[in-house]
Backbone:
């Protein structure tokens, strides 16, 4: 089970967003999928809501 959203500080969210922006292609999708699995119970929709990530891009590697 992932960490409740309330435990993700703004600093952590900012770090995730910054790292995802700097990555491209497969590395970016792998990173987004891993964060989604570990922190959002594999829910691309929750990751999209919390981090502003594109849900389909996130879900690509989760399947």
Residues:
């Amino acid at each position: 089970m992932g960490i409740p959203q309330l435990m993700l500080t703004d600093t952590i969210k900012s770090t995730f967003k910054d790292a995802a922006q700097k990555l491209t292609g497969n590395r970016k999708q792998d990173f987004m999928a891993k964060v989604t699995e570990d922190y959002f119970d594999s829910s691309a929709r929750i990751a999209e809501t919390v981090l502003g990530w594109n849900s389909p891009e996130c879900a690509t590697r989760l399947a």
Summary: The chain has four helices and no strands.
